[in-house]
DNA sequence: CCCGCTTCTGAACGCGCGTTTAAGATACTG
DNA sequence: CAGTATCTTAAACGCGCGTTCAGAAGCGGG
């Protein structure tokens, strides 16, 4: 169970109600929302929030802790599917977790420790999933699996975040519609990119490897297996 | 020539100095910076700013217009190189344009019309560049070239933006260091992704095409990937 | 000289913010 | 019942914000 809740006795009533209202309000209107608005949503006074959480930063920290824990709990249920695309396919399936995801997205936009923890967590998951895919032969190996997992995570969330900023929904609370529109816009190109890439040959990759001092044919320490000979135009090797 | 400058007579002195200071200040500290701070940087009073620009929003609009025009002027010089990776390689080369790019990134983070114009412009460029690559046979064709160009643009800038949010630099004005760090973190995985993709076969793509009601051609899935030969056909399955 | 004009400024206004304070409810305790 | 600790609130404080306002400083023309 949620090992993250503060679990004080009073947490079951007023304090939790304030926290939930704050998460919802932060997710819907961003962290710039005023304490008085949160208080109104929670049906209490602004002073009571400060009394319970010390300050607005304290409230924010409590929300961070709660959301991170809740997301971790949720994610263990969905632990298997975690590639960047199937991940979003999972996301559209859930409705109740919308406030959590909205809060996380706001957090990603604002930066801070929760954002870092959040992508660290997802990047680690992506890494194990990529490793499984590579082992199963369904996924192309990388010279730096950790960097790739992190790049895919940052790329996926960054694209979602920017798309959301550029196409702001009428109702920010309806995350399901938001994600649906995003998938409609980017589903095909992303899947295409993931299966076929962009380039038809290795010239760009070889040039980059040469540039960073890791020549492609030499098979230096970076390559788990020789990735691709520079002479052969198209990639074909598969063990 | 820059058709965007307001080109009033007084624009050569005080008004331009305020505008430049505002662009610099917005780029370095975000749009939340106060008018008094901008006024201090410009060596004037806060009241003079609103006298010249009407309000803070007016100043923001003038900065948007100026930056968009300047970026367009700059981009015509660099018009050729525009793939998502070589684009960033271009970016690290320029120092003077750092305030422009910083302002644009802040704008992308905040949303608004300039952000939309900005990515529209880059997406259009990416589209013509992709078309050239496909025609030359160096780039894999897509079922929806426009959507792919936009996805690549949003993805590239989104990843940069999120990476920047997660790894905030000590000196936000040193954009060269910022971009250098970003390329160091994401250069290899992105180039790998662009040349090899992620998946070894077409099962995921076929599943997606089936899901959206655009069934793939028979036999396009199966064995080791056969990356859409540019000579045989531009598309494997025409809808 | 005074006039009208633009440029520019310091002081102040009104607002909303996070926070503090003093006091009122409420409930548990001896 | 009185005592007391906790929960809760209305009112006010101080701050910074964008903005307004009256007026000073420079300036070309009757």
The span between the termini of chain A is: 43 Å
Largest sheet of chain A: none
State the order of secondary-structure elements of chain A, H for helix, E for strand.
HHHHHHHHHH
Protein chain pair with the most extensive contact, residues per chain:
A-B, 63 and 62 residues
Structure annotation, total helices of chain A: 10
Using only CA atoms, what is the Rg of chain A? 22 Å
Low-confidence parts of chain A: 1-10, 218-239
Give structural attributes:
10 helices; disordered N terminus; about 0% strand; homodimer; disordered C terminus; DNA-binding; mainly alpha; about 240 residues
Tell me about this structure:
The structure is a homodimer of 239-residue chains. The first copy, chain A, is an all-alpha fold and 239 residues long. Chain A has 10 helices and no strands. In chain A, helix 3 crosses helix 4. The longest helix of chain A is centred in the middle third of the chain and has 24 residues. Chain A is elongated and about 65 Å long. The N terminus and C terminus of chain A are likely disordered. Chains A and B meet through helix 6, helix 7, helix 8, helix 9 and helix 10 of A and helix 6, helix 7, helix 8, helix 9 and helix 10 of B. Chain A binds a DNA duplex (30 and 30 nucleotides) through helix 3.
């Amino acid at each position: 169970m949620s090992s993250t809740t503060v679990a004080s006795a009073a947490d079951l009533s007023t304090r939790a109600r304030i926290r939930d209202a704050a998460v919802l309000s932060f997710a819907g209107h961003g962290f710039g929302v005023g304490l008085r608005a949160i208080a109104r949503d929670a049906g209490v006074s602004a002073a009571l929030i400060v009394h319970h959480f010390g300050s607005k930063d304290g409230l924010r920290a409590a929300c961070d802790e709660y959301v991170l824990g809740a997301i971790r709990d949720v994610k263990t249920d969905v632990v298997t599917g975690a590639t960047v695309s199937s991940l979003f396919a999972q996301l559209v399936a859930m409705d109740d977790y919308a406030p959590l995801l909205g809060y996380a997205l706001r957090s990603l936009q604002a930066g801070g420790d929760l954002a870092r923890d959040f992508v660290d967590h997802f990047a680690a998951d992506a890494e194990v999933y990529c490793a499984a895919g590579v082992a199963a032969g369904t996924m192309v190996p990388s010279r730096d699996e950790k960097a790739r997992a992190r790049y895919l995570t940052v790329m996926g969330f960054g694209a979602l975040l920017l798309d959301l900023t550029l196409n702001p929904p009428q109702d920010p609370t309806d995350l399901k519609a938001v994600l649906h529109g995003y998938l409609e816009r980017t589903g095909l190109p992303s899947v295409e990119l993931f299966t076929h890439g962009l380039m038809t040959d290795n010239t760009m990759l070889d040039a980059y490897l040469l540039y960073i001092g890791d020549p492609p044919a030499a098979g230096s320490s970076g390559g788990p297996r020789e990735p691709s000979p520079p002479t052969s135009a198209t990639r074909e090797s598969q063990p």
